[in-house]
Amino acid sequence: MIAEEDEVQPNGRTFKKYVLGEYLWKSFDEIDRLRTSFSKGLLELGLKPKDRVCIFAETRAEWLIVAMAAFRQNLSSKDELR
Predict the structure, then answer these.
(1) pLDDT in tens, 58-77
(2) Buried-exposed string 4-17: b where 16+ CB fall within 10 A, e elsewhere
(3) Domain limits, the chain
(4) Do residues 72 and 35 make contact, with C-beta atoms less than 8 angstroms apart?
(5) What is the pTM of this model?
(6) Top-level CATH class of 25-82?
């Protein structure tokens, strides 16, 4: 994040707008390597198929890579706390 700006809406409300840096694109091969490495790491941590994981992060490219790695190992997320 480079900066924060206030953006005034027509109704008078103000929203914070983030000025982000240049987006760096990744190739399909690079994403596959990251997904595979993270997927192997989940196994190294002792997770097994049908185990549940929680991804606590902002929605961004890395979040999706982690989700794909979990799916590859047949891991699921818990969608409610009990």
Answers:
(1) 778 888 999 999 999 999 86
(2) eeeeeeeeeeeeee
(3) 25-82
(4) yes
(5) 0.65
(6) alpha beta
